[in-house]
From TrEMBL:
It comes from the Bacteria. It comes from Flavobacterium nitrogenifigens. This is Helix-turn-helix domain-containing protein.
């Protein structure tokens, strides 16, 4: 159940945030799933192609836009890699107090 706490905290934080769409939620959940699969590390290194597949979205552009939004809104810290062979880093923010 401890693994669900970050997702619960995220839902509590976005409850009144009109900027968050279902795509943002799908991407955050996919990022969290990947993080759990990698032993709950922070940061997690990700390739957009992996998250696009898990989140069931069809566009890398949509992924980049939504991850950048989540970064700008303070839900994650996103360090983008512009190299196809190097993963980007996603730092999860503690949302418990949000």
């Amino acid at each position: 159940m401890e693994n669900l706490k970050p997702l619960s905290d995220f839902f509590a934080a976005i409850e009144k945030d009109f900027r968050i769409s279902t795509t943002h939620i799908a991407i955050y959940a996919a990022l969290l799933q990947l993080r759990i699969g990698k032993g709950f590390i922070n940061p997690v290194e990700v390739f957009s192609r992996d998250i696009v597949s898990i989140a069931k979205i069809s566009s890398t552009y949509t992924y980049i836009k939504c991850v950048q939004d989540l970064n700008d809104y303070g839900y994650i810290n996103y360090v983008r890699s512009f190299k196809k062979t190097q993963a980007s880093k996603i730092y999860f923010v503690d949302l418990q107090g949000s």
